[in-house]
Amino acid sequence: MTKKALIIIDCQNDFFPGGKCELVGQVESAANIQRLLKAARENKDIVVHIQHFFKDKYAPFLAEGTIGAELHDSCKPVEGEHVVVKYTANSYLNTNLQQILEDAGVEEIVICGGMSHLCIDAAARATVDLGYPITVIYDACATCDLEFEGEVVPAKYVQGAIMAALSFAYGKVITTEEYLAV
Known about the structure:
Blueprint (H helix, E strand, L loop, with lengths): L3 E6 L16 H17 L3 E7 L29 E5 L10 H8 L3 E7 L1 H14 L4 E9 L3 E3 L2 E3 L1 H15 L2 E3 L1 H6 L1
Helix pairs in contact: 3-4
InterPro entries: Isochorismatase-like_dom, Isochorismatase-like_hydrls, Isochorismatase-like_sf
Pfam family, one: Isochorismatase
Keywords: Hydrolase
């Protein structure tokens, strides 16, 4: 049986309602992350929680040491699960994530969390560059509206564009339901 890892990226308080950078669909995404977590724990898959910090206490969100940067209650790690702290969008850069995966003999990676347009995208591409097949669970990912050339790009379209690009050349992009049905 293939050894899998569930990587939950940046499921942190600042991205939830009342946080400094609320993501569109974050509550629904977190509910799906909980379902993925339950399945991963039951299957004894490796679970890695990625926690993003900005070192500057004046950062607009995820400032290290603040409540907003803490992992959200809906996706807190339990004993035996890994927590990897990062300071960039790429979950592998200057972290021990790759070593954790290698030490565990992981052969396939499942990715969820936020922000789809930044940290999910960066992690998915880096994971494939390191030789792992990936599955991105798109309804367990969230993003926000962005602005380009003075126009607001709604989160729905941001999410669609990122997931379309990842499914085109990087790996499977499926729903929680599809993943759990396998």
